[in-house]
Amino acid sequence: MKLKNNFESSTAATQALELDPTNEKALFRRGQAFLGLKEPKLACNDFAKCLELDPNNSAAKAQLAVWNKIQKEQLQKEKKIYANMFDKFAKMDTQVNGN
Q1: pLDDT in tens, 3-23
Q2: H or E element: which one contains 64?
Q3: Residue 57 phi, psi dihedral angles, 5° rounding
Q4: Contact present, 29 and 15 (Cβ < 8 Å)
Q5: Model confidence, pTM
Q6: b or e along 29-54 (b: 16 or more beta carbons within 10 Å of the residue's beta carbon)?
Q7: What DSSP designation does 57 have?
Q8: What is the dihedral of CA 86, 81, 43, 67, to 10 degrees?
Q9: DSSP assignment letter at 54
Q10: Which long-range contacts (CB under 8 A, 24 or more apart) does 43-46 make?
Q11: 50 and 27 in contact (C-beta within 8 Å)?
Q12: What is the dihedral of CA 92, 94, 95, 96, to 10 degrees?
């Protein structure tokens, strides 16, 4: 993780989880690696499992907050993209139908 090699970190954490599926630290580390790999949904699953194992895990709660922020930002971007797209299509329709 310190070397920012997210792929190797996720692989190592997955191997640790194969040995012990309830390894809270491995779940957390893999979640962090997934965030680094731009896989927020996979990260969310791991952080949620951490919280199932230990509802008081403040680090997992904080990472879920990061995930929620990423999700909200992504939804806002998509809304802007699609809103602009539909506005452009509506203008094109009125131009075509108006002529």
Answers
A1: 577 999 999 999 999 999 999
A2: helix 58-98
A3: -70, 100
A4: no
A5: 0.70
A6: bbbbbbbbeebbebbbbbbebbbeee
A7: -
A8: -110
A9: -
A10: 43/67
A11: yes
A12: 80
- pLDDT tens for residues 8-62? 999 999 999 999 999 999 999 999 999 889 888 899 899 999 999 999 999 999 9
Residue with tokens 């997934």: 34
Six token digits for residue 25: 């630290």
Q: With left for phi above 0 and alpha for psi between -120 and 50, is residue 55 left, alpha or beta?
A: alpha
The structure tokens 């640790």 sit at 16
Condensed to tens digits (0 to 9), the pLDDT of residues 48-97 reads: 999 999 999 999 999 888 888 888 888 888 887 777 777 777 777 777 77
